[in-house]
Amino acid sequence: MADNVHPAATGHLPIFITAPGETDALLVVMVVFLILMIFLIGILYLRLHALPEHIAHGASKTQLQMVAVLALIALFTHNHLFWIAALLLALIEIPDFSGPMNSIASSLRKIAGGTDGPVDAPPPQPAPTPARSETVIPEATPGAPSPTLGEDISERKE
Length: 158
What we know:
The protein is mainly alpha-helical. It has a domain at 15-40 and 50-91. Helix content is 49%, strand content 0%. It has helices at 25-49, 51-55, 61-77, 80-91, 98-111, 153-157. α3 (61-77) runs antiparallel to α4. It is rod-shaped and about 150 Å long. The model has no long low-confidence stretch (mean pLDDT 78).
């Protein structure tokens, strides 16, 4: 390379200047660096985009699904409002409304004498009652007054 130096050039050339026909080391290093940076920025972007889902992972299943759908919509539409909504929804704990209602229903079931089982369970079968002898009431004759409560027909005829 020293043979091809222009007479007006200085005696010391920087390392990034290569001779004609040689491999440019700086170009190779920069290409590898650029590819690594693209991958790292992509991974950072996707990790940041999944942040609301990771935050909501300990929440209820419904809340996690809503956050995941909002984050996915934000990813595909590039609309940051969906991502912000997913992040806020992940940070807010939605109260459990069904728990107290199930407790109230269970307490009412206990008060009513039912079992404390699930609502979909079939009702318990009543115990069989002992057979009673059926009393046959004779038919009243036409024109006769009908018996009143607590009064038997045999008592009336007397």
